[in-house]
Fold each of these.
Amino acid sequence: MVKIPLLSSGHFPGSAASHATAQDGGVGSSAVLFARSTIGALSGLVMQSGLPELQYSTDLTRGIVPKNIHSHNDYWRQVPLLDALSFGCKSVEADLHLVNGEILVGHKSVSLSSPRTLDSLYLDPLFEIFQMQNPSSNVATNSTAATVNGVFDYDPEQSLQLLLDYKTDGPTLHPVVISALDRFRSLDLLTTWNSATSSLSTRPLTVICTGNCPLSLVNAQQPLRDIFFDTPLHDISNSSYTSANSMMASTSLKRFTSWTNMLDIDDVLFAKIQGMVQAAHAKGIRTRFWETPNWPTFVRDNTWRTLLRAGVDWLNADNLFAASQI
């Protein structure tokens, strides 16, 4: 069985330091390091007393407040998935390559390796997290409960969004992804659209595909659809994109502007962004802008704040600590 370490929550003394990863500018000195057997010698951030009577089975994310942060290229982090959860990210992203029938995770083919798979980095730990968050005991049980707990102890009904960016041939990869999710599907853990009743059932894990993912195959999953589409936000008026097949609409901010000498989003661009966001919201679809500036940091932070003012739902973040402070 995969052993998942506890994650440090935001209100513990020294937790800001322990939250900082190598990518985010530092490594916490007060955290206890745990190895994760699925990925092999990766370390997690732990704040735990060591006294069983002071611990809960759902301690993994205790005290962590969920936030509308999307962990961009999450697999680059020191501890994929767990780093994002430690900051309360409600969305994580993985780039997928189908190689010899196996789904590998990485940005480019040169970075791929057989230990880094969709299962080892995401599906295996997620499955055990859901088991931990839904314990059975002689005191209480979730086995017959109408509500199944998600990853966040602070908000058990919050669904975690898993964005899968298809880097290889979509029609070949998509059915393999569908099969990889069977264990979650069998336990009713996946957010599902029922085309027969035109109704959405939000569950602990919401899966979205992007990149080379074909909309036609997303639509073909009938009558129960549990993999959704990442709609191009700049084409949101297209009638093909609806809340029945799309959970998110994304586009590059660079598509509309250059960062040269730009310190702020001007009124014209703000109105354009706001118009796209409102059009997506009218369809019941949430929004995200990628390729936002990372430096200078004051431009990055101001851009994030401006996007939030325009109604954008997800902060697309490489630096999770910075995004969590907005």
Amino acid sequence: MKYRLSSISILIFLLSLFSCIREKTSETETMQDSIPAESLENSPNDIAINEQKKEPEPVFLTAQDIQLRRELLFDKYILEDTYPYRDTVRSFQWQAICDKLAFIENMQQKPVQWVVFENYKNINGEAPTILNYTRNEYNRITDSLGIERFQSVPLYSPTGDISSPKLYGQDGTLAKIVDTEEDYYLIEPILIEGQWLVPKNYIRELPDSTSFQHIVVVDRIQQNIATLERESPGNWLIRSTNPATTGRFKPPYAQKTPLGIFLLQQKKRRMHYFQDGTREIEGYAPYASRFTNGAYIHGIPVVGVDNPIKEHSPTLGTTPRSHMCVRNNSSHAEFIYKWAPLRRTLVIVIE
């Protein structure tokens, strides 16, 4: 009888043990089912390697990578790639333009906080005088790069004395923020080598979403103008090709249109202008889009503020004759005025 009870007890113990083992196995399988697949597949070493992976480096474009296609939005006064001019020919410098477009594509490959230099008519204060300045033919103070103090912003060396600036940055110049200090931005201009400190009152920050998909190219030598719009990376649509007239060198009032890349900063449906040497309004220019200092892209100047818009001038596309601005047929100036987004369009002046 004793032996029989003992056998029954052992049997009950074995059944209980088997039941516990099955429950633990089921719990383990349930836990494994709830663990993400990647956690089961990746060892700690694999996870560490994945964390160290970097985003692929951007592929920088060259002029040869840029594709242009004519899809005109403005179909008046069209100029072909090469066209007759007097006893010779003129042309659009598409190779040079593609080089600039590649530069603009490349500078936007990574997220950047863009800023623009602002000091039109010294509105934010006349820049301090640099130590080793010269005076140009207009009797204006200039730096070693030929940039005038008037309407420019001061650029200070971040590693040296900031009692006086080293260079001047032209109104409308685009730059990216590197760092921010109490009263200064540390910036990198797109066309001036190095990093510079600029007082904050001379800087306008552009929205984080800013990108540059609209480009206006002005050629001082060929006296023409083209507008282009980005379709996709490396692909640009030509929206217009027209004659234009740029600024001439004639001190003390008329100046050449500045070379460079500038932000389209301001628009005026009518831009009044003064008679030379006075503060008397002589007339107006229609559909004016300002990009640097007092340089506008505008229509044919009209003498008298009450006179109607003048559409065309036979001197367009011939020789420089304006004070600094870029003259266009008035309907083409209107096209640019409406087509080009403010502070999202770049104006490139080449020769």
Amino acid sequence: MSDVYRFGVSLEKPLIEDFDLHIKAQQYKSRSEAIRDLIREELLRKKWTEGGAVAGAIIMTYDHHKRELVNKLLDIQHDFHDIIISTQHVHLDHNNCLEVIAVNGNAADVEKLSTGLKVLVGVKHVSLSVSSAE
């Protein structure tokens, strides 16, 4: 485990009271854990906006009976083979499929892949969740 550094934080009373309510609602064990998560989230947001490396998952539902949709989905995934780690395909019912695409790469490329899937006719929903790749 890496070294842990301690530092002080000064906050106004209303802000710390709101923060303590957040900590309790999220079931953190300490303020330090909550602050670490907030810092990680902000650094991830910075990486995302600056095009840094991210890892995550694209979750997609679609109607596999839509004409040529499956071929288009496969073509797009092959175009992004360098950032796709794996895919998992689930048959939800006779018409609908769920696909989970694990990704690792440049944030801009991950966003481009997600958007490319989202705009296809027959794709019902696309959700992108990312985290730091480091």
